[in-house]
Amino acid sequence: MAESRPESYLEVSLGALRENAKAIVEYVQVPVIGVVKCDGYGMSLEAAARAWVEAGAFMLGVSTPREAQHLRRAGFDQPMLLMAPVADEGLFTQLLELDVVFTLSSPENAQNYLRWSEGKPVRVHVAVDTGMGRFGIPWENTQALKELYAQKGFSFEGIFSHFAKAFEGAYTITKTQLERFLQVTEALRAAGCPIGIRHIANSNAALRFPQTRLDAVRVGSALTGRLFPKPPIPLRPAARYLAQVVECKTLQKGDTTGYAAVCRVQKTTRAAIVAVGSENGYGYVGGPDNYLLRDMVYYFRELFRLSRKLPGVTYQGKRLPLVGRVGNQYTLFDASGTDIHPGDYVEAQVPTVIPRTNLAFVEE
C-alpha cells in the first residue's frame, strides 16, 4: 500500500535545523539560549529543541508553561527559561517541580512566587522593560529592581530585556535600548545585586549587532533560515509548504470563480484546485494597527504589492498564478501548459504566520 501524505503539510528539514543552529552558535561566540517558542516557530517544539541542544546551546527558552512541560516530558533536562510570568498557582507548582527557571517581571509577580513556593528556592531571571512595553520592571525604576533583589527565596541567575526593532536598518532604537539596559545593570551591579548573566539580543540583534551579545543571546526565528533582513551568515530555509492538487478542471472564458463571483475568467484556463488556503495561513496579510498611521500605510502598501504580484504556487519549477481569491481550504491556480494531475503536490510559500499544521520531517 502506498504511503499516504496529508493534503497539505509543512516539510521540515532536520538537517537544515542542525546546520543553522551550529552556524549560529559558532558565529556569535557567546552562550546561546535556544528559543523554541510557538512550537519551535512552526518547525516542531522537539525538533527545534534537539537542534539547539546538539549545537551546544546552554539553555532553552520557551514562552508558555505548556511548552516547558512538553519538553520535560520529552526528556529535555537542560536549563529552561520560561520567558513570561506565571499567573496560576497550580502551574507554578508543577513548573517548580520540573526545575524551570522563571521570569520575575514585577513586585506582585515576586510576591506570588514566594507565597506559592512555600520556602523552596525559585530560580529566576529578572525582566527589565527598556522599550518593548511588555514584561519587566521599567528600566528607570532602579529602586524597585534593588528591592526585588533584596527578596529572600530567589536564586537570581540572570537579567534580560527584549529589543523592539532589531530588524531596523539603522542602529538607533536598538542602541537606545541597549544603553538603557547597560545603565541599569551597571547600577545594580554597583549596588551589590547578584544580577547573573545579562541577555538582551534576539535573533536579528545577535547576528547583526555584535555589541548586543553581552553574556548570552536568545536566538529563535533564525533557526528557520528565514530572517529579515538578510543575516550576515548563510542559513538554509528549514521548511517548505506542500499542498496536494485534489482536482483539475477547465474554466471557459466568462466563467466566474469563488464567493461573490468577483473573478471572471478572461480566457479558457486549466485550473488546479489545491488544498491550501487561509486556514493554512496562505495569502495572509496582517491587519493594521489602529493607533499608528505608519502601520496603516504599511498595510495598504502590502495590499498594493499583492495586487501587483498575486500569490502563486510552484510545480516542477513553474509558477502557477492564482485564479480568483484565496479560499478557506481550497484555492484555484492556473495550470495551463502543465501536465499536473490530481494527487500531485505543489509548493506554496511558507506562511509568515504558521498555524498549527501537519508536519513531515526529512533528514537532508
Describe this structure in words.
30% of the residues lie in helices and 24% in strands. The protein has ten helices and 19 strands. Helix 5 crosses helix 6. The longest helix has 18 residues, at 173-190. The protein starts with 7 loop residues before the first strand and ends with a strand. The mean pLDDT is 92.
SSE blueprint:
Elements: E1 8-13, H1 14-28, E2 32-35, H2 37-41, H3 45-55, E3 59-62, H4 65-73, E4 80-82, H5 89-97, E5 102-104, H6 107-117, E6 122-129, E7 137-138, H7 142-149, E8 154-160, H8 173-190, E9 197-199, H9 203-208, E10 217-219, E11 239-251, E12 256-257, E13 263-264, E14 269-274, H10 293-308, E15 312-315, E16 318-323, E17 331-334, E18 345-348, E19 359-362
Parallel strand pairs: 1-19, 2-3, 2-10, 3-4, 5-6, 6-7, 6-8, 8-9
Antiparallel strand pairs: 1-11, 11-14, 11-18, 12-13, 14-17, 15-16, 15-18, 16-17
